[in-house]
């Protein structure tokens, strides 16, 4: 049942190309636009008029929401707030008609996310569920559903479901941009062509990646603390990489907006600290590079995730994990993969059960 892989998590990491292909396939048939007008989806008139979006989610799904924020705001120019569901539900949020609330939940059964979605509905907002499970409670508590099509995920650590959630957020952002008239057809065509390249890029990246990462895991695995940094669209990737490592290896991690380092976390750095920097090509890359220099000036070690072909990054990091080049806004869906594998390799080196980490459940049905 593990299809020749040693764990479900590793199998699921390797299923990511197919899972994303499945999630985008029939939604990207048109060359200059995304189609989301499918059974169970929201009325498109509604998407056309939406003025404000709030995403509620927990854990890894929250990170997918953060990526959704950057893309929706950049492409569709609709303001987006993203909030951890357990906070949102107790916040007496300002919400009402005309607002769209998106609950992202792989299982469709996470108690806090469901409660936040119900609250939003009571206040008159429209609720969209992004979930991987047909017939789950989230599908019943929403006005519309967009399914990720990752297939069953057994490992407690979310991997392929995360990539599919990110893919759905890209699709939704592009559809919103088209409906709201904020992106011209040539640009949409470019982005859709790049979206369709993702499955192949994932397969290419996975080829030989475990062998490349193993020595990195052996070198840094004994560390007791890892700091993850990123900016803009790289920040959710840093947050997700840090969550993966802490949940399966039990190593303390922190993830920070790189620009915040000077405001506290830099005090944690010493010669023993590995710092994972998400440094894929983007308009803020030079800023990330200066943060990497600050890290190295304290004697700490930089492990960078960078875009293939960027030779400059090698001068500022001890280890560079490369991902294929795509439009810079699409890089997160690839950049997270080496971080999944790094967490995986470190946990395995420590002899841990990655499929069922201690204290964690796959589905959190209590608050
Ligand atoms: O089923 P959900 O997407 O609502 O689950 C949310 C979180 O519990 C989940 O993402 C959790 O953080 C994962 N174990 C992370 O790998």
From TrEMBL:
Subcellular localization(s) per the UniProt record: Cytoplasm
Subunit details: Homodimer.
Occurrences of domain SIS (ranges): 42-182, 216-357
Active site per the UniProt annotation: 362
Entry EC number(s): 2.6.1.16
Source taxon at top rank: Bacteria
Record keywords: Aminotransferase, Cytoplasm, Glutamine amidotransferase, Repeat, Transferase
Purpose of the protein: Catalyzes the first step in hexosamine metabolism, converting fructose-6P into glucosamine-6P using glutamine as a nitrogen source.
Catalytic activity: D-fructose 6-phosphate + L-glutamine = D-glucosamine 6-phosphate + L-glutamate
UniProt name for this protein: Glutamine--fructose-6-phosphate aminotransferase [isomerizing]
Main location: cytoplasm
Keyword hit for Chaperone: no
Taxonomy of the source species: Bacteria, Bacillati, Actinomycetota, Thermoleophilia, Solirubrobacterales
Name of the top EC class for this enzyme: transferase
First and last residue of the signal peptide: none
Gene Ontology MF terms: glutamine-fructose-6-phosphate transaminase (isomerizing) activity
């Amino acid at each position: 049942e593990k299809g020749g892989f040693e764990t479900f998590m590793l199998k699921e990491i390797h299923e990511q190309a197919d899972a994303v292909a499945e999630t985008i396939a029939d939604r990207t048939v048109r060359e200059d636009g995304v189609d989301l007008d499918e059974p169970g989806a929201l009325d498109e008139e509604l998407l056309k008029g939406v003025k404000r979006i709030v995403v509620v989610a927990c854990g890894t799904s929250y990170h997918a929401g953060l990526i959704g924020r950057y893309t929706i705001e950049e492409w569709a120019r609709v303001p987006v707030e993203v909030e951890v569901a357990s906070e949102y539900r107790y916040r007496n949020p300002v919400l009402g008609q005309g607002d769209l609330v998106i609950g992202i939940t792989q299982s469709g059964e996470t108690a806090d996310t469901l409660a936040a979605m119900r609250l939003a509905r009571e206040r008159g907002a429209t609720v969209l569920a992004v979930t991987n499970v047909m017939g789950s409670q989230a599908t019943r508590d929403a006005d519309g559903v967009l399914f990720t099509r990752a297939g069953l995920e057994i490992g407690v650590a979310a991997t392929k479901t995360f990539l599919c959630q990110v893919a759905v957020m890209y699709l939704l952002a592009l559809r919103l941009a088209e409906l709201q008239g904020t992106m011209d057809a040539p640009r949409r065509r470019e982005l859709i062509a790049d979206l369709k390249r993702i499955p192949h890029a994932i397969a290419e990246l996975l080829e030989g990646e475990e062998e490349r990462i193993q020595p990195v895991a052996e070198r840094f695995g004994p560390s007791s603390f890892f700091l993850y940094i990123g900016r803009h669209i790289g920040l959710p990737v840093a947050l997700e990489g840090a969550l993966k490592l802490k949940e399966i290896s039990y190593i303390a991690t922190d993830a920070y907006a790189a620009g915040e380092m000077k405001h506290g976390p830099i005090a944690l750095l010493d010669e023993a600290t590995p710092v994972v920097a998400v440094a894929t090509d983007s308009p803020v890359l030079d800023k990330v590079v200066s943060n990497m220099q600050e890290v190295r000036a304290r004697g700490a070690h930089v492990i960078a995730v960078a875009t293939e072909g960027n030779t400059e990054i090698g001068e500022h990091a001890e280890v560079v994990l490369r991902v294929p080049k795509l439009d810079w806004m699409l890089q997160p869906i690839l950049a997270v993969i080496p971080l999944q594998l790094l967490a995986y390799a470190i946990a395995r080196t420590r002899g841990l059960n990655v499929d069922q980490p201690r204290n964690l459940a796959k589905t959190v049905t209590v608050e």
